[in-house]
Amino acid sequence: MKKILIANRGEIAIRIIRACQELGLETVAIHSIVDKNSLHTKLADESVCIGQNPSLQSYLNIPKVMSAAEITGADAIHPGYGFLSESSEFAKVCQEYGLVFIGPSPRQIEILGNKVEARKLAISANIPLLPGLTEPIVDLKQAKISAEEIGYPVIIKASAGGGGRGMKIVNTPGELNKQLLIAQSEAKSCFGLSDCYLEKYLSNPRHIEIQIIADHHNNVLHLGERECSIQRRHQKIIEESPSITLDQNLKNIVANYAVSLARQAEYRSLGTVEFLFQDNRFYFMEMNTRVQVEHPVTESVTGIDLIKEQIQIAKGLPLSFKQEDVTFTGHSIECRINAEDPFSFAPCPGKVKEYHQPGGPGIRVDSMLYSGYTVPPHYDSMIAKLISYGKTRKESIQRMLRALKEMKISGIKNNSEFHKRILNDSNFQNNNLSTKFIENFLSKENIS
């Protein structure tokens, strides 16, 4: 493996380029027309325009991505996250063309990427699940019967879903038909598959996930947990590691669940196993077969470069460490900085007039921004990830607040002020968190 094509854009493409440079590997950036001047194209050794601005004509277009790999002589492809990262078809095409896909096998992506199939795998690994279906919904009649058996409220989820799309909460039988149709329509539009399933909806859980890493030499390890309960419309906004809610016994339990699932799937590469946690019990949700947006907080508390390890795994090399070598030190928080109105949350693309990146002790910034860069309207609104690290959670919060105050982005609106309001909130500071946090926080703000 000498040259890696990064089938992505923005900050994750830059993150991968930096890891490749440290490993002595050449890099190829791909870009749409509007991304011609994006920072990842400037940092890579080569860049190739692969099409028009809509994702389906560029970053999601497999023939164009493969053509870019062929003309540049790339021998491996890193998909990052989003776009084609969890496409079993894309992984399969890479294999057929003799390219290394830096991720798990097509079969593993296919099984774990389908939430219904992943639930079956969790059952076989004796991992607890919320009550729900292990097959897609057939029709409204079956959905009604199943919902009554499970007990309201229930949640409809897209079998091939993610990022909060194709998810609808149903509180009463009268809402079921409408919400099912909406969920199926969203699932079809976003993932090309309308299949949905039902499971019990928890009223006030935490979202806890475990980072796992596995090589081709039967080593399957965990790298601790992340607290991801601060979400808006099922999309994460703030993540941290470790979770100070869990004692060591609970940490061991959930980590063992994650490792068991990865072993059951014969998994290879980076992956994240996600759980809901309520009343001291964990319930398996899904497994993501790629690097996560929030991977930097795990890197901060473990000192392990996850992207470099992922690339080395794809080369066939064993992990550079054993489970007993993994230590956890301090506390790290990540805030997702989006180009959006901090009150209405409407996307706000446009030209960045000035950009000042914060620094100082314990601060890391993963971003594609620079002064004069134009944020396009065609893609996800996340423009930066701000990561803080401290000896304690309190110090990490204080450093994050300092960094948010120091960061300056003019020309476009962004949600840094919203993050400040959350981090200054007493419930956040006292670790009173759940997936309902943002909903309750906004309600409280409106009242005041």
Provide the low-confidence segments as ranges: none
Helix content: 25-40%
Counting H and I runs of at least 4 residues, what is the number of helices?
A: 15
- Estimate nothing, just give the exact number of structural domains: 3
The CA-CA distance between the termini, in Å, is: 58 Å
Shape: globular
**What strand order characterises the main sheet?**
13-12-9-10-11-14-19-17
Radius of gyration from the CA trace?
Answer: 21 Å
Total number of strands: 20
How would you characterize the largest beta sheet?
A: 8 strands, antiparallel
CATH architecture label of the largest domain? 2-Layer Sandwich
Instruction: Using the coordinates above, name the CATH class of the largest domain.
Output: Alpha Beta
CATH topology of the largest domain: D-amino Acid Aminotransferase, Chain A, domain 1
List keywords for this structure.
single chain, 448 residues, Rossmann fold, Dna Ligase, domain 1, D-amino Acid Aminotransferase, Chain A, domain 1, 3 domains, eight-stranded antiparallel beta sheet, five-stranded parallel beta sheet, 25% strand
